[in-house]
Design goal:
282 residues; alpha/beta; eight-stranded mixed β-sheet; 10 helices
Length: 282
């Protein structure tokens, strides 16, 4: 392929936007998977203006709607021969418990299940492109525990931070599972912590939780451009195959929790996730 083809979710703001802009400058063909196509079109024009790279495309994809994810995957498969880089960047934290139209808790679906479906649905493209899959996780995974018996948060009191920590732990499980299952297809997989980035991401945290979050982490927040650097590094640095499955902070391998390496848990999550999205993979 003349160009490296990169697919990225959540690119209309924050580190996703900075990542897309930087990779466009490096002559990647960028497919922006966005919930709001008007914002996507504005970003497309902005990237083309700033970089001169006209290979920028917008695809509607709402991670909170699995049918939308399936349709985005179908569109990519209709347009592309291969994908070289998939960046599962979109995410969110939600101060109040919300359920998606698919019947799943919002944090679980937006941060994990939607990306799981997208990744598996476009696997033929990833295999042809010998792709790198990059999952934006977080140091919040250290607070995560895998509660497979109550993913909808129906039996226990909802906690935004515990739900988010579990979802970010699941990002690491997905990273390691992909590295194991698809290494023989030439696919490598990485996870990262971007830092505590000052972006619209925090818009889901309101009320007392929002005030506490602002007070506790506000002074440590970094700019989106800085937060994007590890993602850009993982998408472009040559010779990374030997580091597949690893977790990165500030462009260096870092230790994730012992729990994040639990093989039984990651296999269980894989099986549960595949069952939950099975009708969209038929």
């Amino acid at each position: 392929m003349a160009l490296r083809t990169t697919v990225i979710t959540g690119a209309t703001s924050g580190i996703g936007k900075e990542t897309a802009l930087a990779l466009a400058k490096k002559d990647h063909a960028i497919y922006l998977l966005v919930r709001n196509t008007q914002k996507g079109d504005r970003l497309k024009d902005e990237i083309i203006t700033q970089t001169g790279n006209k290979n920028i495309f917008v695809v509607k994809c709402d991670l909170a709607d699995l049918q939308s994810v399936r349709e985005a995957a179908d569109e990519l498969k209709a347009k592309l021969f291969a994908v070289n880089v998939l960046i599962n960047n979109a995410g969110g934290i939600f101060g109040e418990k919300q359920m998606t139209k698919d019947g799943f808790e919002m944090t679980f679906q937006v941060n994990h299940l939607g990306h799981f479906l997208l990744t598996i649905a476009i696997m033929p493209l990833l295999e042809k492109g010998q792709a790198r899959v990059i999952n934006v996780s977080s140091e919040a995974h250290r607070r995560g525990k895998a509660d497979f018996d109550d993913l909808p948060w129906q039996q226990k009191k909802y906690s935004a931070w515990r739900a988010y920590g579990m979802a970010k732990l699941f990002n690491l499980y997905l990273t390691k599972a992909l590295a194991e299952k698809y290494a023989d297809k030439g696919i490598s997989s990485f996870a990262l912590h971007p830092g505590v980035v000052k972006t619209e991401f925090w818009g889901g945290v309101s009320g007392l939780l929002g005030k506490l979050t602002s007070l506790l982490v506000g002074p440590f927040m970094i700019a989106a451009e800085e937060g994007a650097q590890t993602t850009i590094y993982l998408a472009t640095e040559p010779g990374m195959d030997a580091k597949s499955s690893q977790y990165f902070i500030k462009k260096k391998m870092a230790k994730s929790t012992v729990l994040s390496w639990n093989e039984a848990n990651r296999n269980k999550l894989w099986d549960i996730s595949k069952k939950l999205v099975s009708k969209y993979l038929a």
